[in-house]
Amino acid sequence: MSFDAEAKMQLLFALRSRGVTDSLVLEAMEKIDRGLFVKGYFTDRAYEDMPLPIPCGQTISQPSVVGLMTQALNVSNRDKVLEVGTGSGYQAAILSQLARRVYTVDRHRRLVVEARKVFDALDLSNITAFTADGSFGLQEQAPFDRILVTAAAEDPPGPLLAQLRIGGIMVLPVGQSDAVQHLIRVTRTEQGFDYDELRPVRFVPLVEGLAKES
Ligand code: SAH
């Protein structure tokens, strides 16, 4: 077996042993090659279950965390999903395999431009990526069936709660940027919002405003 094939198989094994058990999520993660989203010095570590640096001082999340968040979001093929924090585009690509439509936004234009190239190369035509401050959501496309935030806020941003459809689910890390963060799941009901706490995590902070071009 080639080095790559063996490394990919080990990644799938690591995902299962860390609790990613949903077969559709595993299938999506088997299909989408993380190596395409990791560039430069770290490509040979793309199939390790580790977060890795990407441009603009950001990180591509650990694959098992991507799997667990995707699983917690419980996406169906009728869903319109918003992801806040495009980063490398890897999480959006996974979501594109499960959802009807994926909107993803990042405050760094460079990351959005790079991610679009990979989406095009893979022919992932149900993803639309925008440069925007995702803490305000994406009013023009709201409401969303599912929202996934991949940067940590102190509390769930109000506009995101407002743009979640009744019956919809949002998964996000909350907590102070360099202290303990928790992954939570928010479900919008007729009466309000239900919250459950999933696990401790560590994400880069959700920052307001667009990034200055570097
Ligand atoms: N989901 C990504 C990893 C995201 S890292 C992946 O699969 O690779 C978190 C990202 O959130 C960073 O790219 C950062 O620029 C972005 N971010 C932080 N605050 C933001 C905001 N207010 N609006 C949009 N994106 C934001």
From TrEMBL:
Active site positions, chain numbering: S61
EC numbers on record: 2.1.1.77
Key words, A-Z: Cytoplasm, Methyltransferase, S-adenosyl-L-methionine, Transferase
Catalytic activity: [protein]-L-isoaspartate + S-adenosyl-L-methionine = [protein]-L-isoaspartate alpha-methyl ester + S-adenosyl-L-homocysteine
A GO cellular-component term linked to this record: cytoplasm
InterPro entries: PCMT, SAM-dependent_MTases_sf
The protein's enzyme class: transferase
SUPFAM superfamilies, sorted: S-adenosyl-L-methionine-dependent methyltransferases (SSF53335)
Entry's localization field: Cytoplasm
Biological process annotations from GO: methylation; protein repair
Example GO molecular function: protein-L-isoaspartate (D-aspartate) O-methyltransferase activity
The organism's place on the tree of life at top rank: Bacteria
Function noted in UniProt: Catalyzes the methyl esterification of L-isoaspartyl residues in peptides and proteins that result from spontaneous decomposition of normal L-aspartyl and L-asparaginyl residues. It plays a role in the repair and/or degradation of damaged proteins.
Similarity remark: Belongs to the methyltransferase superfamily. L-isoaspartyl/D-aspartyl protein methyltransferase family.
Protein name: Protein-L-isoaspartate O-methyltransferase
Species this chain originates from: Alloyangia pacifica
